[in-house]
Amino acid sequence: MPADRSHAGLSAAGARPLKMTAKDILGHLVAFDTTSDKTNIPMAEWIRAYLAGLGIESHLLPSGNGIHTNLFATVPAKGGGTAGGIGLSGHMDVVPTTGQPWETDPYEMVEKGSRLYGRGTADMKGFLACMLASVPAFQARPLSQPIHLIFSYDEEVGCTGVIPMVAEFGKTLPKPDIVIVGEPSMMSVVDGHKGGSRFRTEIIGKDAHSSRPELGVGSIFVASDLIQELKRIEARVQREYPAPRFAPPYPTITVSSIEGGIAHNIIPPRCSFTWGVRLTPGFDNSEAPCALQAYAERELLPAMRRVHPDCDIRTELLGLLPAFASGEGSPATSLALKLAGQNDVYTVPYGTEASHFQAAGVSSVVCGPGDIAQAHQPNEFIEIAELDNCMAFLGRVRDWAAA
Fold first, then answer.
1. Which of 58, 148, 299, 375 has the fewest CB atoms within 10 Å around its CB?
2. Which runs of consecutive H residues, i.e. helices, occur in 198-260?
3. Which residues are 180's β-sheet partners?
4. Domain boundary among 301, 321, 341
5. How far is Cα 89 from Cα 162, in angstroms, rounded to an integer?
6. Domain CATH number, residue 171
7. What CATH number has the domain bearing residue 306?
8. Do residue 31 and residue 111 come from a single domain?
9. Quick one: 391 and 256 in the same domain?
């Protein structure tokens, strides 16, 4: 890896990019370890230098802690127009490789036969590489509508990094009319996916010696009652909110962790557990926590507070990704189907940043190269043909924007 990675692949004269294919660019992007808990700024600076060499100005939007940054750039319409148009969006972060049995260095792209191996090749630096490789073609024709390039951070930890960037649409950043999120879909058009919410429920009981349990309130027992109620809530919402386009075809609830207790001879005064809901379009994120709290207040808290008035049950929202539904005949879905030469749309089980673009009033759709089955896996790869297909698709984006 070069010592100064911010200019890797750029010529010395004025930082003008060398002629680079999507495969060339992908090799450079893979070399940056942008695992979500590490900085992505060197990669963002490389992208900014590449675009600057093409005469494109980039806007960095750093995170509050200064470790990460979003990047937004625009290939303007003729006359310099930047309003409206189409946005191409992807995230720069990747998941860790810790403990995975990689056969090659995950941060050095390796070509084997028809495949390119490396962390992020499929999810989703392949799409980012195609975006960047397409910029000269975007510039080669006068555009009637601008093409925006949107790079985000922290997608892999809850699609949170894009939120402050979307909040700047129509303020410090132009607001696209349409956004295509290039998550790996084998270039199929995806118009919907489940959302997700994460909660933490805390039980405040009362400690006592284990020989006198009637003097205490065992928080772990209470947690068990609440978890069983979540199973009953899940069974109800599965009946009441069928979603046949998804697998499984209903909302689901899972409990992911639990902690509590002090010693074997102490009634545990505190316990907490984290849980989540996979949301289908139309299912209100507040329904499950409200139903759980109603159960707690009706069935559990009265008896707990008879032992001690400070006993309590509290649930807090840790994170929310709205469910995504582009809508039948939406501008983004209609355009993506036309550009892809397809008639059918699909849903996927994973979440994407399309939720946040759609919630901000930007018609959105998911369509990108690579197979989601490779995402987060050891020896992650993308077929070279997928990059070729994506480049052809982006060529048609250019033709549409120039019409």
1. 299
2. 219-240
3. 88, 365
4. 321
5. 10
6. 3.40.630.10
7. 3.30.70.360
8. yes
9. no
Residue 270 identity: R
For 328, counting Cβ atoms within 10 Å of its Cβ (0-12 exposed, 13-18 middle, 19+ buried), the class is exposed
pLDDT 10s digits, 33-64: 999 999 999 999 999 999 999 999 999 999 99
Is there a contact between 151 and 59 (Cβ–Cβ < 8 Å)? no
Compute the distance between CA of residue 18 and CA of residue 31 in angstroms, rounded to an integer.
Answer: 18
Three-state SS at 129: helix
Name the nearest CA neighbour of 196 among 246, 145, 267: 246
The answer on 187 and 68 residing in a single domain is yes
Say whether both 80 and 189 belong to one domain.
yes
Domains identified in the chain, total number: 2
Same domain, 312 and 336: no
Say whether both 78 and 203 belong to one domain.
no
- The SS3 call for residue 205 is coil
Mean pLDDT along residues 237-249:
95
Tokens of 76: 């303007």
CB contact at 8 A, 360 and 162: no
Q: Name 80's bridge partners.
A: none
Q: Is the pLDDT of residue 12 over 50?
A: no
pLDDT of 16: 54
* Residue 36, SS3 per DSSP: coil
One-letter amino acid for residue 77 of the chain: A
Domain that includes residue 313, residue range: 195-321
Q: Which amino acid appears at position 223 of this protein?
A: A
